[in-house]
What we know:
Layout: H1 2-12, H2 16-19, H3 33-53, H4 65-97, H5 101-105, H6 116-130, H7 132-140, H8 150-168, H9 174-196, H10 204-230, H11 238-276
Amino acid sequence: MDWIDSNLRRWLVEHPKVSKFEWKEGQTWGASSQFLASTVLIYLSLTALLHLKSTSVTSSTSPTLPFLRLISAVHNLILLNLSLIMAVGCTLSTVSQMDNIRWIFCFPTNTPPSGPIFFWAYVFYLSKILEFIDTILILLSPSTNRRLTFLHVYHHAVVVVMCYLWLHTSQSLVPVALVTNASVHTVMYGYYMLCSLGRRPRWKRLVTDFQIFQFVFSFGISMVMLWFHFNGFGCSGIWGWCFNAVFNASLLALFVDFHSKNYAGRRRKVENMDKKS
């Protein structure tokens, strides 16, 4: 175990690319408002175009569907592994960097976006752009066009803005938010990968429940950060956190609505069938 721990720290925390990382506005790749705006705009435009061009070809007549399933499986496997690496890397970086427990919740004001924590925040930011492929795969697969929802597109588009603000404002709570979200996505992409391979697990509801728990947990942790902010010398990135809080609140509302429509409705349908039988 010591050998594994030392090697993980060597590659995920102490490597020069990680330990000496600096987010420099306009210099680091992707570190500009122009890049952010153009990336989100291209994503929304491509999504709208593919949605309009989508055909009514069924899976049984589509020769490309097996190939798309293979691409989807590979894509989900990549994101599963990347999410796991980010969760482990950020956890080890947090343990290595923190001076005290307060630091996990509240970065000192004027904290520069540099070092291992912000390296993993940068990787997380880029991974959200990679996740745009989720939408493309849904739209290219004739049998799954109905799965594309406002929640899906809204989440994918705005989460990139949120991650940019993490870095741009040196936002407090990044270690907690990153580890939590990456852990949720490890489970989620594991589920999607199995679905791509034709093995649909029975724990789909668990994925949605896990996501809802993540948002509720984030609000609870934010109360700790706000207490430190108003009872001390302030916390770094408070305006970035305000955007994050509003975004998470909107996602929580959308996920609860999705949950009630998909699972409560299904439960009532089963109950009605039982009564009839």
